[in-house]
Design the sequence.
């Protein structure tokens, strides 16, 4: 048993912490958000130059071959600064699907550009009726000569509006297949939106989009397993982001309480507020513990069914608690910052919004709690 | 970062499980639970662990400890929980023992440590007083020097198992003129000394765990003082952090949850097993997920301590969250027992299932856990001041 980072992970942490502290204060963040794409192209290029875009991808595909621990180190730092770059969509979702699929042509076509920062990607898997059920979809592939024709709608596609390539789930015969759809294909229609935390999303319509056979990422029983694995790792990653955000909020709230004076003394001297900040602290520590737990069980080879089930339970527990406590910590941070906490002058609201988005992503606290209970009690 | 066991650790886990299979069973568990047989059964259980050399995981090996790694301690606690075996009372092994081997002299170590280890000496803790609860430093019990003795006068309260105890470790005031923290000494007092009297206090579980201990001109040799005169507060504080870590009760919570699962699988809930109820599952899941977190919080604290950090506010965190969870599982256990949980025991008669009495008693006495060892509100004050810097 060992909960410390190894030397490489510590170097990665030092490097990302340093970069974020120099390049990502709340003013800088707002200037990045104001760019046309909703993030800074220069920052994204820095991510590429620093090698961060390669971290989770397998070495065989030119990646760094990092584990969920390495990804968590990056995501936690990004959470601490509420980063707006589409790391999740491009690297952790679409990049990982392509890299762990079984199509060498697609890997060659997209991965070098993703790793160097020259390709944006997205995973289009949700539809209006899906919520968190992966196979509650209507997108359909039909054979058309040597290729396929794709019809249907996807919603809430993270990074969908600026992605160069979309990885799309659709029915092919009796199972769900994954297809790479170049965004500039004829018949792809995209409506762009922003989430409240700054991330870009899109609703995408596929209108008889013609796809060659070579665009198939994965089909048959393997595709669902691939999707689940990638989403599980992404779930750990956004939870790491949440822990970073919670730690920031705790520190900011304590600092504010020690400087803001009312009734002739710093408000941090009031026991009622002290105890609420202690609750923020215990909630944050508990979430960090579940993060460590999930990282440990999900960074090893899962030999048997039992360890696999345990690893899945750890993910469900982590995400449920991060959803519950993340929101609670952010709401308390707003409360203790008083009137200022509800203004956009301070960045506290940015963290509340990110933590609420994280709760809704990949199964909210109610859904994850039920997932945990099903695994544990049935 | 990993939580896997090495082959040696797996072997150790097998050895612990096999030891528990051979030395602990439901019959012994039942005798430990019953007030009439509690003391004898507890000593029997301690002696079995002592015979194996597995009674003091945290002690240095030179004093009879196990020199276990944190992982081994974790494996051992986990196996205890699986076997539904309680730990032995903490007063000797987790509280006064470490103070004696850390701050005591050689004569004191030789005299007291063997009895603590083998279970021959039963200890209790003399800290709280009627006027000194959360504000422990306000304690008034006086110790006045008279030649080679102190003369003790005063009252200690909430003294768990004083009715069983051979010895009490007590905080007494040796200087009334100094600042409150600087006039306290740490004394070991023989409960059979003339002038010691023990009065029972019945708690809301209907049982007698608690006592008031009075000292009426009790003569205690100066040789029974640990460390320097007036430095007792320092030694006690060192002990308090140990105590709070010991109070997290994770293994106990796991045991109760196991029992609740078993019981809920048998109870009828509108035609299906109570365990299948979505509301019960949601409630259990919330508790269990917090417990999974706390387990790793404790492991992280232990790992930090092993690297040289003293448990400071983290021990308060463990006490705080651990006791909240103990009460949560006790509430759940009571609710799953249904109205049978409210039935008072009646000699020789079984009512419904045999589980209700335990559920009631544990719930009722469990209300104390967020109060003792420094109330949870005091723990929050400690974290706020020393941890968060408020």
Sequence:
């Amino acid at each position: 048993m060992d909960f410390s980072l190894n030397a490489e992970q510590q170097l990665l942490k030092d490097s990302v912490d340093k970069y974020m502290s120099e390049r990502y204060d709340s003013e800088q963040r707002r200037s990045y958000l104001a760019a046309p794409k909703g993030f800074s192209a220069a920052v994204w290029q820095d991510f590429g130059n620093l090698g961060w875009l390669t971290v989770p991808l397998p070495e065989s595909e030119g990646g760094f071959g990092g584990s969920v621990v390495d990804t968590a180190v990056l995501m936690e730092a990004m959470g601490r600064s509420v980063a707006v770059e589409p790391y999740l969509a491009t690297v952790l979702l679409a990049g990982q699907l392509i890299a762990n699929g079984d199509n060498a042509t697609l890997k060659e076509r997209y991965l070098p550009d993703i790793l160097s920062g020259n390709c944006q990607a997205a995973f289009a898997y949700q539809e209006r009726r899906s919520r968190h059920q992966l196979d509650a979809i209507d997108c359909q592939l039909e054979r058309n000569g040597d290729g396929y024709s794709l019809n249907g709608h996807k919603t809430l596609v993270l990074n969908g509006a600026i992605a160069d390539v979309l990885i799309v789930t659709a029915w092919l015969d009796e199972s769900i297949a994954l297809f790479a759809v170049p965004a500039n294909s004829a018949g792809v229609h995209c409506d762009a939106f922003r989430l409240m935390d700054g991330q870009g999303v899109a609703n995408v319509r596929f209108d008889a989009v013609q796809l060659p056979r070579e665009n198939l990422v994965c089909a048959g029983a393997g595709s669902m397993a691939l999707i689940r694995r990638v989403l599980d790792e992404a779930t750990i990653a956004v939870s790491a982001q949440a822990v970073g955000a919670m730690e920031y909020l705790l520190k900011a709230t304590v600092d504010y309480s020690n400087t803001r004076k009312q009734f002739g003394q710093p408000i941090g001297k009031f026991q009622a507020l002290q105890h609420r900040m202690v609750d923020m602290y215990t909630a944050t520590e508990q979430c960090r513990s579940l993060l460590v737990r999930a990282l440990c069980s999900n960074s090893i080879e899962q030999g048997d069914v039992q360890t696999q089930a345990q690893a899945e339970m750890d993910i469900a527990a982590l995400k449920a608690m991060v959803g519950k406590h993340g929101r609670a910590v952010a709401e308390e941070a707003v409360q203790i910052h008083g009137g200022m906490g509800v203004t956009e002058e301070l960045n506290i609201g940015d963290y509340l919004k990110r933590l609420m988005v994280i709760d809704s992503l990949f199964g909210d606290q109610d859904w994850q709690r039920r997932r945990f209970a099903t695994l544990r009690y049935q | 970062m990993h939580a896997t066991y090495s082959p040696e650790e797996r072997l150790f886990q097998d050895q612990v499980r096999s030891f528990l299979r051979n030395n602990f069973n439901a019959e012994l568990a039942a005798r430990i639970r019953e007030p009439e047989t509690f003391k004898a059964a507890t000593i029997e259980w301690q002696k079995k662990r002592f015979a194996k050399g597995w009674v003091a995981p945290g002690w240095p090996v030179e004093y009879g400890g196990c020199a276990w790694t944190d992982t081994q301690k974790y494996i051992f606690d986990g196996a205890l929980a699986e076997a539904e075996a309680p730990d032995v009372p903490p007063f000797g092994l987790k509280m006064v023992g470490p103070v004696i081997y850390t701050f005591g002299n050689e004569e004191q170590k030789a005299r007291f440590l063997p009895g603590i280890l083998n279970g021959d000496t039963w200890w209790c803790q003399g800290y709280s007083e009627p006027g000194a609860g959360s504000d422990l430093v306000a304690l008034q019990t006086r110790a006045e020097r008279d030649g080679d003795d102190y003369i003790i006068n005063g009252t200690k309260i909430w003294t768990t198992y004083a009715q069983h105890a051979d010895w009490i470790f007590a905080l007494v005031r040796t200087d009334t003129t100094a600042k409150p923290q600087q006039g306290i000494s740490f004394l070991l007092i023989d409960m059979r000394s003339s002038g010691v009297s023990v009065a029972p206090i019945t708690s809301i579980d209907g049982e007698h765990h608690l006592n008031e201990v009075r000292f009426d001109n009790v003569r205690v040799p100066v040789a029974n003082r640990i460390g320097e005169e007036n430095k007792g507060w320092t030694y006690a504080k060192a002990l308090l952090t140990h105590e709070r870590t010991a109070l997290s009760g994770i293994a106990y919570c796991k045991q109760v949850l196991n029992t609740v699962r078993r019981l809920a699988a048998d109870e009828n809930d509108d035609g299906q097993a109570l365990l299948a109820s979505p509301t019960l599952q949601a409630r259990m899941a919330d508790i269990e997920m917090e417990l999974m977190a706390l387990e790793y919080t404790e492991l992280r604290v232990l790992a930090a301590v092993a690297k040289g950090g003293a448990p400071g506010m983290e021990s308060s965190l463990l006490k705080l969250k651990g006791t909240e969870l103990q009460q949560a599982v006790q509430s759940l256990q009571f609710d799953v027992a249904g109205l049978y949980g409210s039935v008072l025991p009646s000699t020789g008669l079984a009512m419904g299932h045999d589980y209700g009495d335990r559920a009631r008693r544990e719930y009722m006495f469990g209300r104390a856990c967020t109060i003792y060892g420094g109330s949870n509100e005091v723990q929050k004050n400690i974290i706020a001041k020393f941890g968060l810097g408020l």
